[in-house]
Amino acid sequence: MRLVILGGGESGVGTAILGKKKGYDVFVSDFGKIKENYKEVLTINKIAWEDEKHTEELILNADVVMKSPGIPEKSPIVKKLVEKNIPVISEIEFAAPFTTATTIGITGSNGKTTTTLLTYHLLKQGGLNVGLAGNIGKSFAWQVAENKHDCYVLELSSFQLDGIINYKPDIAVLLNISPDHLDRYNYDYNLYIDSKFRITMNQTADDYFIYDQDDATISNWLANHQIKANKVPFSLVNQIDEGGSVTENNEINIKLNEDNFIMPINKLALEGKHNVKNTMAATTVAQLMNIRKATIRESLTNFQGAEHRLEKVLKINNVQYINDSKATNVNATFFALDSMITPTVWIVGGVDKGNDYDELMALVREKVKGIICLGVDNKKLADKFEGLVDMFVETTSMSEAVKIANKMAEKGDTVLLSPACASFDLFENYEDRGRQFKQAVQNL
User: Fold this and answer.
1) Residue 110 annotated as lining a ligand binding site
2) Which residue has the higher pLDDT, 147 or 268?
3) Residue 284, marked binder
4) Considering the entire predicted model, what is its pTM?
5) Over the stretch 357-393, which tens digit does the pLDDT of each residue have?
6) pLDDT value for 52
7) Annotated binding residue at 114?
8) Is 275 annotated as a binding residue?
9) Of 60, 84, 177, 214, whose Cβ has the fewest other Cβ atoms within 10 Å?
10) 112 is in an annotated binding site
């Protein structure tokens, strides 16, 4: 069986290692440049590879192709594979049959990384032999090849879910759905929604589907489609018989099989309404995995949040600087602005993915005193927000953006980097953008 892998990054190299171990004839092809450390791994393992090109005669003879999530379906080589009816799958789909481990799949437009890290933290503190993979951490396929773990917490993007055929998580979590990556879905929101729900399409009556009951998009889809898994909702507004809700005393209450887990919200390490939901989702998983309540409680108080997600960087002259570079869509920035409790200088901008900024208008009027646009093309942001705030500045440099923010902010204010856009105009990725922000703040 010939396994061709498109993309020589973490997921591609991990899949190559697993494929080689399972007896496949493996070939890795990357249209960009493969990093030196990955080239070394492929060479040591005697795996054939190429970069900066796709040689068609070495690719179109595949029995199966694993495509990295960053490569769009529209790319010419993928189109040719589809025309030849060669299966094009994701790393998760390829690796899953080679492990008997329990898998917890977590998706959503926002909060995936935080919830995945928190779930992993709860299970690890509970003594389980657990791996962390998907969009985060070491490649799932690589870990399966090394046969390390009894269960895995997987952060799953819509792109990874598009590449599954038979994979099903034992526990699926769908946090929320809001317009994102629409450029990859022909600007059709329904295609993106269907993509997210692929997480539950192969689940059976033995599996669990945890979801946000307050999310209108999720509720509408569930009203019109049947799923086989046991539905376990969570909500900030409704009391739920089987699932997560908030008590009158401002506690989270997870009810499962007539068993209650209760904890005051003010004791949680993560702040903000959206993080109450993320915490309820992760705690529900921990309950289903039979982690002791005392362990869950302790773990929810000592959890360190995800880097680049509402990350408190420094307080300088009583101004708090917050790095939310991972907010690459409007909905994520909505959560960030909603959780601000002091006047805010907002750094926003980047590559617009078809954003609709209308839902931010009320929050900007209420919370934002100044806007700094950090992007190559800021026209859409300027048209929408320039008249709403006292100070509106455009720049193409992170160090300059932070210096301007420092001048705008007064004692007691917050400077928030929450771009609502992708980063590729000025930065390698959102991590690079977040690191540059933190460096610029430290240089003040």
Assistant:
1) yes
2) 268
3) no
4) 0.81
5) 998 999 999 999 999 999 988 899 999 999 899 899 9
6) 95
7) yes
8) no
9) 84
10) yes
